[in-house]
Amino acid sequence: SPAMGRILADRLAAMAEARIQGAALPDMPPAERDLVLYGWNRTQADHDRSLTMQTAFEAQVARTPEATALVVGREEMSYAALNARANRVAHVLRGMGVGPGTLVGLCTARNIHLVVGALAILKAGGAYLPMDPSYPADRLQNFVQDSGAQVIVTQAAVEPNLPRHDAQLLVLDAEPRLAAQPADNLPDTSGPEDLAYLIYTSGSTGKPKGVMVEHRNVCNFYTGMDAHIPHD
After folding, report:
1. What is the pLDDT of residue 78?
2. pLDDT of the residue at 39
C-alpha cells in the first residue's frame, strides 16, 4: 500500500545513513512496528473451507441464474445457460472416466469454449491443463507427455494443431453425445484438497515445470478478493 511504501522508504533512508550495527539502526515507534509486523499481516478470515471451484460457481448460479455470466465479443451467456452447457460436457467427461486425479488438457481459443471446458472438467471431478493453441507444437507436446493427460478437450478449429497424443479427445463443437446429456448439476466427487488445475512455467530458466493448484488455494484467494474489491 502507499502508506506502507512511505514508511519503508523513510526507514531505508534512515538506515542508509546509520552504521550497520544493531544498536545504531533506527527503531520504529511501538504503534508503527505493530502495524508493519502484525496489522498488515493479519489476513485470517472465516470462509467455507469445504468449497470447490465448481460448487462456488454453482452457488452463484443459484443466486443469480439469469444474470450475465460471460461476454465474448457479441455473445453473452447467463449463469444458468453456462451452467447447463458445462453440465452436459461434464456428463460426457464422466463417461470417459474423468474423476478426481484425472488431468484433462484444455486446448481452445479464448472464447466461450474455454470457459465451458474448464467448468466441465472441474464438474466432472478432474483437473484442467491449459494448452494455448498459439504455443509451438513442441511445447504443447511437452505438456501432454509430461503431465500424462488422459483426455483432451478442444474445438474443431484447433484440433488440427494438437500435438501427437494417445489421449481421448472431446471436440466441444462437434460432439454428438452432448445434445442427449442432462443439464443438471453432477454429484460433486472432488474436495478442496484435490487438484483443480496444472499450469506450466515459461521454462525461461530451463525445462517448463508444472505448478499444481488445489481447489482450496483458488477458493481462498477469491474469497479474499471478494471481501476487498467493491462489487454490486
Report:
1. 97
2. 81
Helix (H, G, I), strand (E, B) or coil at 203: coil
Cα angle: 152, vertex 84, 196; to 5 degrees? 45
What pLDDT does 25 receive? 47
Grid coordinates representing 119 are 467448468
DSSP state of 22: G
Q: Which residues of the chain have pLDDT under 70?
A: 1-4, 12-26, 43-45, 230-232
Residues making up the chain, counted from first to last: 232
Quick count: other Cβ atoms within 10 Å of Cβ 128?
26
CA 90/CA 181 separation, integer angstroms: 9
- Residue 203: the pLDDT is 74
Confidence (pLDDT) at 132: 94
| Nearest in space to 199 (alpha carbons), one of 124, 125, 132 | 132
Exposure string of 67-103, with b = 16+ CB inside 10 Å and e = fewer, is eebbeeeeeebbbbbbbbbbbbbbbbbbebebeeebb
Q: Can you read off the three cell numbers belonging to residue 44?
A: 485470517
What type of residue sits at position 53? M
Sheet with 210-214: strands ordered across: 168-171, 151-154, 103-107, 127-130, 195-200, 210-214
Cα–Cα distance list, 159 to 198, 207, 208, 232 (Å): 21, 25, 23, 39
